[in-house]
Amino acid sequence: MGENEALTARLEELRADLRDHEEAEVQIQLQLNLAQDRANKDAKMLNHALDQERAAHEKHEAEVTTAQGAEMYRHRIPLLDIHVHKFYEQYFN
C-alpha cells in the first residue's frame, strides 16, 4: 500500500468519525432541548403553585389581621352601648 492509499484510507476514517460525531452532537442537542423544555414546564408549574401559596398566605394574613383588629376593639363594645344609652337618656327622656 502506497502513501497515497494510506492517506486516502485515513481520510475516509476521519470522515466517518466526523459523521459519527455530528450525529452524536445532534442527539445530544435534542436531549438537551427536551430537558430544557421539561425544566421550563416544571418552573412554570412551580411558579404557579408558589403564586397560589402566596395568595393564600396573604388572604390568611389579612384574615388574621382583621380578626386581631376586631378582638382589639371588642372590649369597647360595652362602652359604646353605655355611651349610646347615656346619649339616648340625655336627649330623648
Characteristics:
2 helices; 93 residues; rod-shaped; mainly alpha
Description of the molecule:
The chain is built from two helices and no strands. It is an all-alpha fold and 93 residues long. The longest helix is centred in the middle third of the chain and has 72 residues.
Outline the fold blueprint.
Blueprint lengths: L2 H72 L2 H16 L1
Which structural class matches the secondary elements? mainly alpha
Separate helix tally: 2
Q: Radius of gyration over alpha carbons? A: 39 Å
How large a portion of the residues is in β-strands, by DSSP E? under 5%
In percent, how helical is the residue content? over 70%
Helix-strand topology string: HH
Give the overall average pLDDT: 86
Query: How many structural units, i.e. domains?
Result: 1
Distance from first to last alpha carbon: 131 Å
Largest sheet: none
Overall 3D shape? rod-shaped
Unreliable spans: none
The number of strands is 0
